Amino acid sequence: xxxxxxxxxxxxxxxxxSRDQQALKRNYFYPIGDNTYEFFDPGDDRIDTDPPVLVSGxxxxxxxxxxxxxxxxxxxxxxxxxxxxGNWTNTHKIELDEGEFHAQAGGGAEEDTSSAAAx
Length: 119
What we know:
The protein is an alpha+beta fold and 119 residues long.
């Protein structure tokens, strides 16, 4: 993506196990129009979501390349050009995993710290 400051990166993931948390934390939302967003992986590849365009207040689902047999569902989704949050569930284990996430736009010290911890 051209403008890293517009990337609304998932920086906090709660619930599930460490694989769930790291898989979700690597991704970000990017504004594509007035109050509409798409979901991307850290390599700037678009993640196919259902529905394909995301808006605040609407649930969506997706799969990730590194976990192709796992379906993620996001509910209570709230997003604007600065922050995003929601609840997640997935089919990673026999029991349904669940948790919540928070995302924030822009770069800076927080981003550097989370990147170092994830690496």
